[in-house]
Each structure stands twice: as C-alpha cells, then as structure tokens.
Write a structure and sequence with these properties.
Radius of gyration: 17 Å
CATH class of the largest domain: Alpha Beta
Largest sheet: 6 strands, parallel
Number of helices: 10
Low-confidence stretches: none
Distance between the termini: 36 Å
Number of strands: 6
Strand order of the largest sheet: 2-1-3-4-5-6
CATH topology of the largest domain: Rossmann fold
Helix content: 40-55%
Structural class: alpha/beta
CATH architecture of the largest domain: 3-Layer(aba) Sandwich
Mean pLDDT: 84
Number of domains: 2
Oligomer: single chain
Length: 219
C-alpha cells in the first residue's frame, strides 16, 4: 500500500504565538511537514527560496511586506508554490486582492485544525480552498459583477474539451471531480488545465476559476 507523501509547509506570520500554535497543530497531522517559519513577506520569500515548501500559509497584515504583495511576488518568482492566505480579516479588498494576486485559497484563523490540514492537502493538489463565509462572499460578488462583453463566448483557441474543463473549474470542481464528470484521468485533467492557463495568460487555477465564473462559464 502506498502512502501519500507529506506536504511541505511554510508558515508566514508576524505573531510568534500564532506561528508556534499553527506549527504545533499541523505537526499533529501526518500529512503535513512544517519546514519553516517567517515573520513577514520579505523573510517569507527568502525562506521559500531556501526551504522549497509546496504550500505557504501567509498572514495578510504584516510589516515590511504584507500577505497580498508576498502572494503576488510568489506567483511570479515561485509559481509552483501554493499560497493560502490565513487571516482574521474578511475584507473584500484582501479577499479579491489576494485571489487575483494568485493565492490558492483564503481561510480564516478560526478554521478548525482538521479542516486547515485538509485544505493544505487539497491546495497542494491544485484545488482552490475558501472558508465557508469567504466562499459565499466570492459567489455573491461574482453575481454582482458587471457582465463582461465576452460573456458566453469562450476564446477561439480553446478546444471544446478545454472549455468543458474550464466551466467545471469555474464551478469549483476538483481535478478528481472533473475527471469523473468527463470520463478522463486526473493526469489528463491537469494537462488540460495547464494548457488553459497558458492560452488565457493566467497564473493559476484560482484565476482560471474567477475568469470562468465572471463570464458565466459554469456548469
């Protein structure tokens, strides 16, 4: 029987107690390996280069460089690292700023430790993770957003299958769910998503989901 490898996690938060508490809780989960800590975005980027984590848990408000700016630079410099913003703030500016900067998730600090660990594993697998209240705010904002001029008209350079995959990404489906729905493998699903990102000039799955949802391309 094969055992899923652990997820390498970096914790970035300016509060010592919060960092220590998160590390203590996550160390209890066999799926998680906390490889390091950082006190702000500047140190966070340095630690990413040094420690090569797969997921970074990033606070929003920090000195020197805040979480949204760190996510933006992380997306540019280390696109393989998934950033999850973990904060006490539910401001739309932070939520949408973080997601558009390339965050793979936005969770609140009162998230139960079991849910946080599960979200980290999902994020490493390419899924977008949003806390319950955050998810509802994202959906509400998308519904209020002005309709883009290209609503309902996918770009010509996307294949029919890629459009199907993009619609399911926009609906929040995981790779496994997309594969099951379209009767393809998870590997093929990942390949389709990579091609979609390249063709649309998007950085990650989160931006693809927002792109699709804003245009009404959801199943």
């Amino acid at each position: 029987m094969t055992t899923e490898r652990t997820v390498r996690v970096l914790i970035v938060d300016d509060q010592t107690l919060m960092r220590e508490g998160l590390k203590t809780l996550l160390d209890l989960d066999a799926r998680i390996d906390v490889v390091g800590e950082a006190t702000d975005g500047v140190e966070g980027l340095e630690k990413v280069t040094e420690l090569r984590p797969e997921v970074a848990l990033v606070d929003v408000r920090m000195p020197r460089m805040d979480g949204v700016e760190m996510v933006r630079r992380l997306s540019e410099q280390h696109p393989s690292v998934v950033a999850i913003l973990l904060t006490t703030f539910e401001d739309d500016e932070y939520i949408f700023g973080g997601l558009r900067a390339g965050a793979g998730g936005y969770l609140l600090k009162d998230t139960p430790s079991e849910e946080l660990a599960a979200a980290i594993v999902k994020a490493r697998g390419g899924e977008t993770v949003l806390g319950g209240t955050v998810a509802s705010r994202v959906v509400r904002e998308l519904r209020r957003s002005p309709e883009p001029s290209d609503k309902g008209t996918p770009p010509n350079d996307l294949s029919e299958r890629e459009v199907e995959v993009l619609k399911l990404v926009g609906a929040g489906a995981s790779n496994r769910e997309i594969a099951a729905t379209l009767y393809i493998t998870e590997g093929t699903t990942k390949n389709h998503i990579s091609k979609i990102l390249r063709k649309l000039g998007l950085r990650d799955r989160t931006q693809a989901a927002l792109y699709a949802a804003e245009r009404g391309w959801t199943e």
